Amino acid sequence: MKKVTLLFIGLAFAACTGPQEVVSSPDGNVQVSVGLTSKGAIQYAVDFNGKEVIGSSTLGFDFAEAEDLLDGFELATVDVKEVSDAYTMQWGSNTELSYTHTEATFNFTHVPTGRTLGVVFRAANDGFAFRYLIPEQEEGQLVVKDEKSEFNLSEDAMAHWIPGDWEIYEHPYNHTKVSEIDALSKANHPNLAATVIVENSVSTPVTFEYKDGTHMSIHEAALVNYSGMTLLREGKTGFVSSLVGREDGNKATIPTPFKTPWRMVTLGDEATDLLASHLMYDLNEPNQMGDISQWFTPQKYVGIWWEMHMGKSTWDYGMTQDMGTWIADGREHGRHGANNENTRRYIDFAAEHGFSGVLVEGWNTGWEHWIGFDDREGVFDFVTSYPDYDMAELQEYAKSKGVSLVMHHETSAAPRTYDQQMDTAYALMQANDIHLVKSGYVGPLLPKGEYHHGQWMVNHYNNAVTKAFDYQIAVNTHEPIKGTGLERTWPNWVAREGARGQEFNAWSIEKGNYVDHIPTMAFTRFLSGPMDYTPGVFQLHMKSGPDGDNRVRSTIGQQFGLYIVVPSPIQMACDLPENYEKHLDWLQFIKDVAVDWDRSIPVAGKVGQYVAWARTPKENDNWYLGAANADGEHQLSIALDFLEEGATYEAQIYRDADDADWETNPYAVTIETKTYVKGDSFDVRLASGGGFGAILVKQ
After folding, report:
1. pLDDT at 6 over 60
2. Is residue 408 part of a domain?
3. Within a domain: 290
């Protein structure tokens, strides 16, 4: 590795004594100053573009059964080098990625105990990161009571946040000053199947806007064998890491030696710089699975799912469920959605319109006693179908039409039952040539005292993915641990939910997701990787919800844009087949839009207001443009500088009509054709709650 020079300068960040070391990004715009306080506490601060964005912030650990490592340190050695890599993502926004970082490993000696602690800092042009290196200990393992990593913002920035819930990420987003964050006020939301908010903390990614336009996001990368991190607000503008806990009050038990996940901060001059960053993937380990394209390719799918949320059918069959015993006692209610006839209908629809998969939820026994009970262990059987569903026959029928079933494994947040059956369930999929599973973890976690985002479940989620690889299965996790870039390492982890999804439009007490939901998630949740949001609703008004008047707060134009804006190698067309058949002209966009991207460019956006992307796929030289807008119409002009010089592109545009509006005229769509060349401006009106999708076909 190329050696780089570390700057030793006397900086005046608070309470520090002696020279401070500055780790500078290759372009010099990010500078991380590291030193010790007068009490020997490890401290850092960060400048971006010559301005402080994070003030003096300390680092350390509070252990349950060993002396704390909070102060009393001396700096032993510093090793500095340039690290760089170029790597290929098997799927995602960009195929080829590369980076160059300045890496500095600080080795500290804890004078009172003689223990050592390493902290590795990376400075990149788009941000910085650090992680702890804990050497082997005599005890063999350490019990982490608290990790004390501070992030003291230099001003009372605007924050875009959800609470640091230990069980779920499905909260509406909030937009407040840092000093006004009140996570405890979001506790006990009645629509959340499980929710535990214990303090005034926020989940990550959390995004901030500074007065000068600087944008910053705090998150973590490479979360393995550790608890998820929330950020507890301290003082007016500060945060300290707060790990998700467990029943004994501690946060994690770690073997030694141990590397923590990276604590990562992305920085940019404007909002779209956050979207363009791939720092999270840079910090993860290389691909450990090799080429999985022989059995998984990015795809679009339909499925038996939305009709349950619409009240058209049910997940359960209606028989008697007594713990692990399912009894066929003739009490079926006749509204079971996952039956042979209905599944064939979806398969036929998928085959006719070019969809690769058909998700079937409610196919297996256990749905009669799956939620709202403490005795959920042993309820679900992941290999036994209800009597009106023949998986093997249906999969053969699907394959004969060029389609495959998509498996569904709902655990009802009783993962020990899933652990016991996982090999058998995966083997059944492999035997039937099914290579994609949607797993679910709805409800308060069992065993009690563990939580969805704690270390125990992090290990379960990760194990489910690595074991799935042994059976050539890709995993789409719902009610997951947040994404931290592990899809670079384990490319069969193709998507997850991890935010308030489409289904909340059907029954939430808010009568649907707020109109700024997508333009906010674009700069928060989507920074953590692919999301299975399930777009494509054509019937925006529903006779559902608390008062029977829930709806999707968008125009049809925005539903097109979601296929470009929402990052995922699997995209569902979630609405009912009959709603698509009424609008085959609209459906054509979903049929034609790509899903396996080669290169992606964020072309416009403001957090919580609007977002627009341009993407080109691996399969051709076309470009796909899409946008989603919040309240208030917006005129968007996209410079088409990314088009090929000398080429002409014919654009098929699916946009909001001139009088479209999500509240008053959401179904007004204009479909038009225009011609563009490099250097042209793509001008389009985004209606309030609107959007568009466009396919620029190279001639």
Report:
1. no
2. yes
3. no
Q: pLDDT, tens digit, for every residue of 305-335?
A: 999 999 999 999 997 765 456 677 778 899 9
Distance CA 62, CA 70 (A): 7
Distance CA 224, CA 233 (A): 24
Q: Are residues 256 and 354 in the same domain?
A: no
The CATH number linked to 529 is 3.20.20.70
Q: 261 and 131 in one domain? A: yes
Taking the C-alpha atoms of residue 277 and residue 620, their distance in angstroms, rounded to an integer, is 24
Q: 127: phi > 0 → left, psi -120 to 50 → alpha, else beta; which?
A: left
Task: Centre a 10 Å sphere on the Cβ of residue 310 and count the other Cβ atoms it contains.
Answer: 17
User: pTM (2 decimals)?
Assistant: 0.96
* pLDDT at residue 543 in the model: 84
Task: Could you list the beta-strand ranges (E) of 210-365.
Answer: 215-221, 229-234, 238-243, 252-255, 258-259, 262-268, 299-304, 320-322, 325-327, 357-360
CA contacts within 13 A on the Cβ side of 637: 3
Q: pLDDT digit string (tens) for 627-684?
A: 999 999 999 999 999 999 999 999 999 999 999 999 999 999 999 999 999 999 999 9
- Regarding whether 88 and 193 lie in a shared domain, the answer is yes
**Pick from 256, 282, 308: which residue ends a domain?**
282
Helices (H), 327-400: 340-353, 391-400
Domain count, the chain: 3
% pLDDT > 70, the chain: 96
Where residue 157 sits, what CATH number does that domain have? 2.70.98.10
Q: Domain check: are 315 and 270 in the same one? A: no
Calculate Rg over the CA atoms of the chain. 25
pLDDT of residue 325: 61
Q: 249, 282, 315 — which closes off a domain?
A: 282
Residues 473-502 pLDDT 10s: 999 999 999 999 999 999 999 999 999 999
CA–CA–CA angle 227, 231, 237 (5° rounding): 165
In which domain, by residue range, is 157 found? 7-282
Q: What is the pLDDT of residue 19?
A: 55
Q: Which amino acid is at 280?
A: M
For the chain, the first-to-last Cα distance in angstroms comes to 45
Catalytic residue (choose from 503, 581, 619, 672) = 503
Beta-bridge partner residues of 158: 177, 209
**Same domain, yes or no: 493 and 402:** yes
Q: Does residue 43 fall inside a structural domain?
A: yes
pLDDT tens digits, 144-157? 999 999 999 999 99
Q: What is the pLDDT of residue 326?
A: 65
Residues 487 and 519 in one domain: no
DSSP string, 282-293: HTSPPPSS---T
* DSSP string for residues in 638-684: EE-TTSPTT-EEEEEEEEE-TT-BTTTBTT-EEEEEEEEETT-EEEE
Q: Which residues contact 156 (CB under 8 A, 6 or more apart)?
A: 177, 178, 179, 236, 237
Same domain, 491 and 542: no
**Which residue, chain included where needed, has tokens 């799956």?**
370
Is 672 labeled as catalytic in the residue annotation? no
CB atoms within 10 A of CB 567: 24
Q: Decide if 1 is inside a domain.
A: no
The 3-state DSSP class for residue 207 equals strand
Same domain, 530 and 412: no
